[in-house]
Amino acid sequence: MLSKDTGNFRISLPGSEGSPVSVYKENIMIGRLDTCEIVLDHKSVSRIHASINFRDRKYFLVNLSTSNILTLNGRPLGPQKDDVLAGGDTIQIGPFTILASIDEGNALSLLVQQQLIVEVEPKPVAKVPAGMPDAGDVLKVFWEKRTRQKEDWGTRLRPTEKPKPGKAMFNWRPTRDLKRTWRYGLFVWAFIIVGAIGAFAYFRYPQAYSPKPLTMAHSKVFESTSIAVASNGNSCTTCHTPNAPLENSCVTCHQAEQFHATNTRAHEEAGITCTVCHKEHQGSDFDMATTAIESCLTCHNDSNKQLYNGKAVATAHGGTYGYPAANGKWTWKGVYREVADAIPEINNSATGDKDEQAKLSRHFHTVHTGRLRTPVGLKGDSRGFVSCSTCHNSFEPIDRTTPQQTCAACHTNKAGDATRDARFKADQANCISCHTQHPYGGNRWSEFLTEDALKRRKDAIAAKILSFKGQ
Strands 7-12 and 108-114: what pairing? Predict the structure, then answer.
């Protein structure tokens, strides 16, 4: 039974009598082998020279020979190339011509014809009369004398010295007299363009040619530091390496017992690297840490229209302190794993939270109660530590208004208060007290931490950094 992928081939070979041979197949082969459907016995025909494939109700001629020629309507068809056959096409393979025709039933008829090859008898060679030299010998003598005696080896087309004896003239070397040289104008214009770009960059980006000195943290030599394995010592190549980005040098150097160069998950997803916040070559008195802290409000601002991995930023929390609850529901995602690693109390207080809201409530209260000293103006427990009553004035019903008003007592620097972090401006929110930028850093925001809580945090960070080194 014929299928839609089966072609109907009707083949008429030269010298055959009677009706054409019908073949019902997906494809037929043409070549010198006996297994081919169309056998063409001639030395100019390959063993498998071509095939005709039937697909999508069309017949395609494919050239399978890389050594012999196949033409379709007088146009050569390259090796492994194919073309659609139509009625009236002529295929030429060696001395054979195949005429193709397609009837109304989509049957392909192939009429094979062989051209007559007439062999021309060679003309008799005239005999050389006796006593006359042979023409080949004359040319041989001519070229031998010309090569040995009359050749000027000092011309521009020849080397300046004669070749060494032997058949292989291996000391020959080419000359440039026939080679097109580059125009001098190309070099002139290249010099002008490069010089113009250099001059523009010098005035537009002068710091690239003459940067300001390094900060003191990178210019001095320190015997020991809590955040780096070695000091820079005012060395350019310590940070600027030829085959690696600058951030790789930051991460490699800033590994110590109480610091591991990691960033917040939000900044990693936004593509924020070390040099975005920590600027260098701004002068020896420039404080990289302080400027990075001040850049929080500069970047997270409604006026900043720059996109970070396709994401825009805005003024954080609408200008408030971002108390993570609204209408009695926690609206934050909880403490990230990196932050929880540095707060053992969070894992120690796990009691099998009944739902996500209970988990978020436990995270928030564990971070605050029992770990912080009570700031001035708020009441604490008998030890002077933050307790439930520090933020809530009542519990039946629970007071949810006062906690939003007490955030500023801890998370804002007061003017003239010497006990607060001097890196923050007066009355400016301390963003990193909640949003930990370097989770595995031992010196992060310890103003209100009790001595026990501070020790537990440093021990947890040291153990985590030690596990990183062992990986």
Answer: parallel
